[in-house]
Amino acid sequence: VAWGSSLSSEEISRLKPSQKHNHLPGWDSLNNKATLGEVARTHSSRGSSLADNVPLTFVLPQHADELLAHHRRGGGPYIVKPVGGTRGKGIRLMTEVSDAFLKERRRLVVQQYIMNPHLLQGRKYDLRLYVAVTSSDPLRLYIHEQGYGRFCSEEYDLSRPQDLHITNSNFQKFHELYALSGSSSRTRPAGNKWHIDIIRREWEREGNRGVWERIKTAITKVFIMFKVLLKFSSRGVAASQSSCFSLFGIDVLLDDQLKPWLLELNSLPSTGTSSPLDIEVKTSVINDLLHLLGLV
């Protein structure tokens, strides 16, 4: 298995049947935060429902006028992300769209902030889930049953600074109440990360059934939305697709109506571990992926 930087088309064409590479040709474009928003906007403009689970997104500087118009109609607040940012770097909340901000002419993704998140124990959370894609034509994807929720350290309170409610661990780890899960136990919630099994039981305890199926449908719709782009990107190396695969980390937020919102796709999700929960989930994901690929 060649795991790491993308190989060239020529290198991929030389792979033997027993050799695998963790980048489907052309799919690295999905790691760019702007791509999801741009493709979703295209589908929305055509009346497609495939983009219904992607928050309204503006990519600057090209959508600066549209963002300003949306803000003047009462839109916002927004979450701002650098196009190529990772690990929470440069993420911030924005309530006002100023002329000075728009004149900076930087490549940024500005996404409608979901103000009404679903809460557990009064706290906002999002989900990190994993999807393996083994072919783009035909599209073949597998959604892993494991994952985890990333929780804010404080209860959700709109009167408090909104930065406190960014679920990214790189923000929360500086909070005095932040705590990694000390155990991978699936029987009780602990710390700022919960196993997906605990979260699913909490949904059912509240009488919310069918949430997991809705999430899987939303993820599938987004990958179908990308299918034309991905098919075009991998043209010319289709014969080598059987040697390639991609593993995606998907960030999902639920609103208070239990509607899933896909915030981000990461084609190079971290496989590092900082807690027993990380070890359990990520080991399972990688182990199952290698078996899925037929590697002994």
From TrEMBL:
Signal peptide: none
PROSITE patterns (UniProt xref): TTL
GO biological process, one term: microtubule cytoskeleton organization
UniProt-listed InterPro entries: TTL/TTLL_fam
Keyword ATP-binding carried by entry: yes
Keywords: ATP-binding, Ligase, Nucleotide-binding
Catalytic activity, reaction form: L-glutamyl-[protein] + L-glutamate + ATP = gamma-L-glutamyl-L-glutamyl-[protein] + ADP + phosphate + H(+)
Gene3D superfamilies, A to Z: ATP-grasp fold, B domain
GO molecular function: ATP binding; tubulin binding; tubulin-glutamic acid ligase activity
One Gene Ontology CC term in the entry: ciliary basal body
Pfam families named in the record: TTL
Protein name, entry field: Tubulin--tyrosine ligase-like protein 5
